[in-house]
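G., the chain you wanted modeled:
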Amino acid sequence: MPIYAVANQKGGVGKTATVLSLGAAIQDLEKSVLLVDFDPQASLTSCAGFNPDEAEATVYNALAKKQGDLSAAVFKTEFGCDLIPANIDLAMAEIELVGRTGRERILKGKLDPIAEGYDVTLIDCPPSLGLLTLNALVAADQVIIPCAAQFLALRGLSALWSTIEDVKENVADCDTLTVLGVLATMTDSRTNHSNEAVEQLRKQYGRLVFKAEIPRTVRMADAATSGKPIIQFAPTSPAALAYEDLAKEVLSRGKAHAN
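Predicted structure as tokens:
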């Protein structure tokens, strides 16, 4: 029953699209999936077909209350996955949790009892290395790192890697936190820049880089607007097929890690 944090402090690299479409693809493999929107921008909530402004029960509600229960914020999506939504209120958690004892473990304490009921849990992290992302890393068993096929995106990975190592070394019971894989996103085989960036990513991180690559496509934005993952909105598109391949890789790697 693994929990994966999908993280990268750089915005616009496909974190939300990956959580949404990977979750839906794993669901299609007859696995139960919980999606957790842990970004105050609430893009995952919107892309899953919910209006963040109308969400009364959110991940923030449970975090803000010491006795809050995340189970009250679990909603069923039209594509089968369960979702814990977010809204802009979550931005206040960065300030409010600072004074709390064990502030980096608050999400873990709330999420663990819920995640036990699912085969896979995916956390959509904010584009930062602040307290919210720290909570997600502590709650997770492993990390999935989407990285756009751009050299500037590659340069930012070292900071995330350092944060993961800090969590392993300095947070109790997190010494087993590992990176499940690095995912090349927004690839474009027609351009030298994209091809060279992917080549550099594979050279630098070797077998950690997933075989699946997510191609750049306007259909992804269209899918987000429709409130559906790409594998339902355009099931025969290259991006949808890539996420189906990724789902199989994630389950295979997760099984190997568990063993």
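The chain has a mean pLDDT of 90.

Shout if anything looks off.
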